[in-house]
Structures are given as structure tokens and as C-alpha cells.
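Task 17 of the worksheet. Students: predict the tertiary structure of the chain below and write it out as C-alpha cells. Keep your answer in the requested format; marks are given for formatting as well as content.
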Amino acid sequence: MTNTEAYNQRLLEIKRQIGNIEVPVSPFLMNGEFSRLPDVLDSDEKIIHAVTGNWEGRKQGLLVATDKKLIFLAYGIFNSFEEIINYSVINSISCNPGVFYADISIFTSEKNILIENVNNKKNALSFCNKMDEILSGSKKGESKPINSNQNSEPDIMDQLKKLGELREKGILTDQEFTEQKKKLLDKL
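Model answer:
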């Protein structure tokens, strides 16, 4: 089998995996992202879930959970972005649903990542639930809870603190910080 044939076979297998998990992610709309997956995934790596959203509010792309890691891919005409996050560095994940869309916050030992405007809140909650299963099983006997759809005051206060940290580090602009802060305060 040639390299091209192996690549095409793996790409077809990846598209089937995403189709089997019944998530509203279009291989046509995310063509650049899908075309990178055979190169980014190990040959035996399985896709567990996927969502589309905006990395830190700037890069529209595909967030993929596999049985080994999280991957965010964003490919455009003029630029591309790729981030791989090993499960061992993830401390927690928070899913904050809105009316139609949701935001997913990923808190790692290295940084905090905000995936905004996830394609629909049902899919985002499903993604967070799958991540809960993955993270619970990734460490022997150690459970890592994911906060999904919680509106408790301490959780919102923690999120406000994290937003402030993201602004201080220059990851969020003042305008992005203000918008996210307003969304959180509206939940109180």
C-alpha cells in the first residue's frame, strides 16, 4: 500500500469514527482540519468525540477528544493552528451552556484554555460528559470531575478569577474579558 493509499484509508476511517459518534461536525466544512487528522493521530488512536468552536475567541476550528489526548485544529487560507493537550496535564473542564451555544473551559497545569461558541450546547454537554469518562479512567483510581451545567456561585466566582488571569496574561483582550464576565454575572 502506498503512503497516499494509507493516508486516504486512515482519513476514511476517521470520518467513519466521527460519523459513528453522531456529532454535528461536517467533514466538508472542516476539510482542512480533517485532512490533518491522519498525520496528528496515532495509527491505533480512536476518536471519542468532537466539537467545533473558537480557541480563545480567535481561531475557529475542531476540538477532538481521542482515547489518548485532546487536539485542537484550525486551518484557514492564510494561517493554521494546532494544539495537542495530553490528558495527564488536564486538571478540570467546565462546560458553560448558553441559549444556543456553549463555552468549554479546559484548565491544565500549564494554562487555561477557553473554547467559545461550541456548535451547540447539547453537543458541548455531551463532549464534557465524555471527557469526564476519559479523565476518570486516565488515572488509576483517581477521579477528575468535570463541571457541566453548574450555576453555583462559587463556580462562577472561580471562573471570573480564571478570566481575570487570562486577561492579565494577555490571552483575552479587555473587550473579550468584559463580554465573558457579563455572561458569567448574568448567571448569578
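Marker's comment: The domain at 3-150 is CATH 2.30.29.30 (PH-domain like). The radius of gyration is 17 Å.
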